[in-house]
Backbone:
């Protein structure tokens, strides 16, 4: 056997409070494309980071061709021939420099000892050589900022190949690419395979796995649940089945609410940069509508466009037969639309301000006489919501920065409840809150719907949608790929549409 | 809040926190005590205290202008160059064109507000970072201002750039009174009070502080961030104009770049005031204390026969210490 192998044995990785990797065994061989699939948070990226030396705290062993290997630094990974291309290409490239410099970056940093001047012709020549070997035409003098996303990715792969590369890890390389760009990438990946390089290919698109990969490993909750070769008998259904089976950590019995007529309607909504395309949906009175989809499917973008925080290209938003003009969040709030954003600390609460002020900021005018804030009124309001929502805080004048995640989220929700909105949009509201707080947030959302409001709930946790929503729209690539009745669907069906199957 | 805190200083961290929060006030008291011990009655006397108040008035007014801009996390390094330009307008409308004092004041305020639209255009429409936009505007203010005056100061007895005679020979008593105690001190206190009430007790002030804390979250709470940044800019312009008027009256002329030198002490005052009372945001009362500290130091050192040309180093040291107090308390980098 003349193939090189890289073998992970009993790898575990602990983050505070979470076991991100749990006794993982994973082997790759040169000349092979190995797919790594799994739901969000299954541990795929963590495992890749271990191999790339970015997670030095791992437990377990790594063997290269049977001999023990420690990968505790990115340098050690590179020495072992492991190169990684991260999902966010822009964080790995220096966009103000040329293609040649970016490709030769490692060389320019590591092999310049004792040298002081940059040999431009040599750098350009070497960069060009790498690109030619990949059969790709990009002018090496161009600035990286002028390149398309796909070209940037090629530059990153070229950088990886320029150094000694035996094992290439690609973390969701196709997520931002168009169909033709994806084809181009596949061609390259297949060519690299011919050159006897091992490729790990992380993706959410199951058909891509079937198309180009030789083997696949499925991860779930930090564990490897399956490891099999791909042949004619492998089906997408098999893979999806293995990805699922997640335990619902927050089982919640929804109190049925009285669902009225259609009041909130969105038609053909398209974001300015096509981050969401032609989205049409409606919400009835008292209804909780779920937005499902994987990370990057456009859920957050949909929420933000509805709220005016992202610009829309076209489309209409109607509430009670009235077309709403929403160009910015201020317009949205004046039309009684509320958004509980995903990034709670960055976008939801004002961490430097008190609980009292946070709970009144969305409708401060209501607590003012002649533009002067009446502190008694805001305090009464704050006390009321601290009590009804069960916000744990020593005082209403505590800075929200010192509250726990769940309590901060309650403050954000309380802010909008006090503003008495008609449409509540939740974007991943349970992210980073513990199970108990999750249940309370669900209860809260349930009661908002019960009071006859419209609720839109976006999350990538299908289990949550199945317990809280009445109807679910599944998003894929910025579009709605399916509309499902919650009572008649299951995790499997949602996942199917989340990974690109269409039903319209 | 500070007093209750002082009663229960439980551990070392609380002590440090307390000292940092009240550093500016303690430093001010310390300066007063040290100078009084050293210089005795010459320093700690009614007339000298009035002296100090008068000297700090102009710095305070410009510092209040900066405070209002900095509340929503804005910045304006060109405020004092604009003030110099506004001063030319104020004195020239009064002397050259014979406006009444009231009309000249009104013209100066209006001019400053209109010209400030350019600053806000660069920041809000062209989206240039505040610092860079206002650095560029410093040159624009200086050049256009002197183009308007014909390259010289505007003072009594001089003819217009086109050679014609001015409408007035000199300044009236009322004109000069603006820059003298007690009027100048009253104007300063009124500016501080107005800014304090605006920033602390009105919803606009609350919005500005919300924007200063986290603009994105403020925007997603439905605050019209562009509108309120514009409002802060316009109020800043009014304070700049008031500063220009006071400076002109005190100098009985609009001198060439007459206001430019107030920028650094004004910014120092705001930064000294940032941490007062643990607020960690630009606030009017803190700014007043900051300006007081700078002026007391200046006055006391001058009386201790420290040469005037060394004083900038002292002001710089105060600014550095203020910045350390303001930023060392930040939890994250």
Residues:
């Amino acid at each position: 056997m003349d193939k090189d192998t890289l073998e992970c044995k009993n790898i575990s990785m602990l983050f505070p409070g979470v076991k991100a990797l749990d006794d993982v065994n994973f082997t790759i061989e040169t000349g092979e494309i190995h797919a790594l699939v799994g739901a969000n948070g299954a541990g795929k990226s963590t495992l890749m980071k271990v191999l790339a030396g970015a997670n030095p705290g791992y437990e377990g062993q790594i063997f290269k061709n049977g001999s023990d290997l420690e990968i505790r630094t990115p340098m050690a990974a590179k020495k072992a021939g492991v190169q990684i291309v991260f999902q966010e290409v822009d964080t790995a490239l220096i966009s103000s420099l040329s293609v040649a410099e970016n490709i030769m970056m490692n060389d320019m940093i590591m092999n310049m000892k004792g040298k002081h001047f940059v040999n431009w012709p040599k750098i350009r020549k070497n960069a060009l050589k790498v690109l030619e070997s990949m059969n790709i035409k990009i002018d090496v003098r161009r600035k990286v900022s002028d390149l398309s996303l796909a070209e940037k990715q090629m530059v990153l792969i070229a950088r990886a190949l320029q150094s000694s590369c035996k094992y290439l890890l690609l973390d969701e390389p196709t997520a931002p690419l168009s169909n033709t760009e994806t084809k181009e990438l596949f061609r390259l990946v297949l060519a690299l395979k011919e050159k006897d390089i091992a490729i790990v290919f992380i993706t959410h698109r199951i058909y891509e796995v079937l198309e180009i990969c030789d083997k696949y490993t499925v991860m779930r909750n930090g564990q490897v649940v399956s490891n099999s070769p791909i042949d004619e008998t492998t089906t997408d259904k098999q893979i999806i089945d293995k990805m699922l089976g997640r335990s619902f950590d927050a089982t919640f019995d929804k109190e049925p609410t009285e669902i009225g007529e259609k009041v909130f309607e969105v038609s053909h909504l398209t974001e300015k940069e096509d981050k969401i395309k032609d989205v049409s949906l409606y919400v009835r009175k008292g209804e909780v509508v779920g937005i499902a989809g994987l990370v990057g499917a456009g859920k957050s973008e949909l929420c933000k466009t509805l709220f005016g925080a992202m610009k829309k290209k076209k489309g209409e938003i109607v509430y009670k037969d009235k077309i709403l003009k929403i160009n910015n969040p201020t317009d949205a709030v004046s039309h009684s639309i509320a958004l509980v954003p995903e990034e709670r600390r960055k976008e939801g609460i004002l961490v430097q301000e008190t609980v009292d002020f946070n709970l009144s900021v969305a409708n401060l005018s209501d607590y003012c006489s002649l533009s002067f804030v009446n502190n008694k009124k805001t305090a009464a309001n704050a006390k009321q919501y601290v009590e009804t929502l069960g916000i744990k805080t020593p005082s209403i004048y505590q800075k929200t920065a010192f509250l726990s995640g769940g309590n901060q989220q309650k403050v954000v929700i309380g802010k909008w409840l006090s503003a008495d909105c008609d449409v509540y949009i939740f974007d991943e509201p349970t992210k980073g809150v513990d199970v108990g707080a999750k249940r309370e947030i669900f209860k809260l959302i349930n009661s908002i719907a019960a009071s006859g409001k419209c609720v839109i709930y976006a999350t990538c946790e299908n289990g949550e949608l199945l317990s809280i929503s009445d109807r679910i729209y599944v998003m894929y690539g910025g579009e709605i790929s399916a509309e499902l009745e919650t009572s008649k669907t299951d995790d499997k069906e949602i996942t199917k549409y989340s990974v690109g199957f269409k039903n319209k | 809040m500070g007093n209750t805190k002082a009663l229960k200083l439980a551990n070392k961290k609380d002590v440090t926190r307390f000292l940092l929060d009240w550093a500016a006030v303690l430093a001010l008291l310390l300066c007063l005590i040290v100078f009084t011990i050293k210089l005795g009655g010459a320093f700690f006397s009614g007339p000298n205290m009035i002296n100090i108040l008068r000297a700090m008035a102009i710095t305070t007014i410009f510092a209040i202008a900066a405070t209002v801009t900095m509340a929503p996390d804005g910045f304006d390094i060109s405020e004092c160059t604009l003030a110099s330009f506004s001063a030319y307008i104020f004195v020239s409308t009064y002397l050259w064109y014979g406006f009444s004092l009231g009309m000249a004041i009104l013209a100066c305020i209006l001019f400053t507000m209109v010209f400030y639209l350019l600053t806000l255009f660069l920041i809000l429409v062209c989206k240039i970072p505040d610092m860079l936009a206002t650095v560029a505007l410093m040159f624009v203010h200086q050049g256009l201002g002197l183009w308007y005056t014909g390259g010289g100061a505007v003072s009594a007895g001089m003819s217009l750039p086109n050679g014609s005679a001015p409408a007035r020979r000199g300044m009236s008593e009322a004109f000069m009174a603006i820059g003298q105690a007690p009027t100048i001190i009253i104007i300063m206190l009124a500016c501080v009070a107005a800014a304090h009430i605006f920033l602390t007790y009105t919803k606009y002030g609350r919005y500005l502080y919300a924007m200063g804390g986290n603009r994105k979250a403020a925007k997603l709470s439905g605050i019209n961030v562009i509108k309120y940044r514009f409002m802060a800019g316009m109020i800043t312009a009014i304070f700049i104009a008031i500063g220009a008027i006071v400076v002109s009256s005190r100098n009985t002329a609009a001198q060439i770049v007459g206001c430019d030198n107030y920028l650094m002490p004004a910014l120092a005052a705001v930064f000294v005031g940032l941490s007062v009372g643990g607020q960690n945001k630009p606030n009017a009362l803190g700014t007043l204390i900051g300006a007081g500290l700078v002026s007391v130091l200046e006055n006391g050192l001058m009386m201790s026969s420290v040469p005037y040309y060394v004083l900038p180093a002292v002001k710089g040291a105060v600014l550095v210490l203020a910045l350390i107090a303001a930023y060392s308390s930040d939890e994250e980098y």
User: Anything to note?
Assistant: Chain A has a mean pLDDT of 87. The radius of gyration of chain A is 25 Å.
